[in-house]
Amino acid sequence: MTSDVWLPIPPEGIDGLPEGPRYLFWDGGDNGDQPFPGDPAECAVYVVPYMKRLSVRVAPLEHLTNVRLIQTLTAGVDDITARLSAIAPGVRLCNARGVHETSTAELALTLTLAALRGIPGFVRAQRQERWAPGFHQSLADKNVVIVGYGAIGAAIEDRLVPFEVARVARLARSRRTTARGLVHPITDVLSLLPEADVVILCTPLTEDTRGLVDADFLGRMKDGALLVNVARGPVVDTKALLAELERGRITAALDVTDPEPLLPGHPLWQAPGVLISPHVGGPSSAFLPRAKRLLVDQLTRFVHQEPLRNVILTTGPGTAGATGR
Length: 325
Known about the structure:
This protein has 10 helices and 14 strands. By secondary structure, the protein is α/β, with parallel strands linked by helices. It has an 8-stranded mixed sheet. The longest helix has 17 residues, at 101-117. The relative contact order is 0.15.
């Protein structure tokens, strides 16, 4: 029986790992040239390296002939699910729910406040040694729509409430009721946009959400509204967003873009009313301790053959498709 676990964090730095497996460190190296730490055929659990190039993260997949668990350290797994054709049936793919909510919600709130209160303009004025007072928007009394009300969406709302927002509308794949109130189905989104002052995107990237924020979506947003994207770049139609930004009708704060990374010369860099951060919702000081706790818990469950957390799919014949969630 295969028993190797490939970890992108040195195992000696993770307290509480269960006994039994052989833990091997592999994160691809700085340039993606790190040799595999052992025989891929002996790898039972592959923990995907965090913040590495896609080519590095998926490099082992075709060689993992006996893997039983693929664990990402990201909330989104769209890049991995698209590349599972070489994986045998019955392998569980799990995401990092519980790791990124705090950090991503903090950034969503940071981007929202910075954009509303004009922080980018203050930074430019400071560099010019220019005193530039003015009247800016407050988050208080605003109507906010959260598109993608999962764990991250709920964490964002937790942080919005103390800022005295007027109302939060929540949207997810299906209608449900939470302790905070109604969660609308995503099909209701267009009807909610005209009253929204701030629209925060934190939905996973799926075939249903790719290009969700298109010209029709943006056109229904009210004049002066702010779009905040901490989801995935392709959730937004970049061409349609640029058209609205150039008109000056709405503003945007983007932690993710399409394409990504955003290359020099791309018109988004210089578009009016846009604040861009380089996909840093997850990587913060909050990441490592939460990632370690997740790995200890998940590997303990794996070793003791207990139900795993955060199972996104189980591979089936031909894969690239889910047999469970």
